[in-house]
Amino acid sequence: MAGGMAVGFAGAVTHANGAEAANGRHSDLPSKFTPTAYSLPSTKYSPFTTPDYYTFADDLVIERNHAGKPHEGKVLAAVEAHSDDIPLFAGGTVAKLIDEGYTGFLIRVSNDEAAGRTLGYGVVQNEKDIQGAAKALGCKKAFSFYYRNHRMDDNAVIEIRARLIFLFRVLQVNTVFAMDPYDHYDENPDHLVVGKAVEGACWMSGSGKDYPEHYKAGLKPANIRDKYYHPRSPQGHNLVNRIVDINSYIDHKVRTNVANTGKGPAGTAGSRLRRELAKEGKKLPFLGDDDETANFQYVKHFLMEDFRLMGQQFGLEYAEAFRYIGPPPNYRENIRRFVDEHTVPL
Ligand SMILES: [Zn+2]
Asked: What is the pTM of this model?
């Protein structure tokens, strides 16, 4: 449906020698340099799907589907500044992990007032939308903190972090999703504020000394072992060490984005385009004959195309990219093992 070049990742390495970059643009990079950032092909059908640049780690892992419910009993929190962040950038992976057994919660930090016909309308519409998005992802509940949109750098990060720590402990979160706080470029001040607040909250929610009143009131520390940091577009530049195969969950991702009617490039864009064309006596056949089909197909065939191109780089049909941070090595156990193996009698 959408064009775009199917250039392989290996192709990106060989072509960026003064001839052509992976996205088809001319490259003046002399051949003596190995590229350290990759500009993958993109459809340009949306400014908010995949970023322009990536750096790939040499121990990159492709996360595929798991049979059964291997994550049964575990809890994930998908934290977003705005109602369209998780649906656009990580919706396939969140839906996948929930299908594989996780209990999921969606936490929105802003009030999304900047996306709507008026500020007040934006608040109400997005409050309603995130319930639909959470349902499409398979989340058990959605929370909102209602900080003012695009003004989050005016808020005390310590307060945002403390509210997250409280929720992480109450919900007993094991895994988080958030916007990468180390993206090299981001015009939206809310994203980096939320990313940093999440990072601190993950660590501190496991501490026995931070906010001791939580424990006195009966809460338990949270044991957060996995973090999935997703990139931001356009013009973002992110370190990626995990690619997730979302082919089985692409329709979940589409439905999640269709639920965002008040914000982002998805929502009702398909039915609006269908009506516009009808006024001119034309139609795009794949948009179908009703609003629901038009909204679904518009998102799938325009906005998901960049995730298909991303998948192609790794031999997958659709993929999402992350900087994944797993649990640190158990250094005490490693030292103990070394001691057991090397001690000699006095
Ligand atoms: Zn956002």
From this structure: 0.91
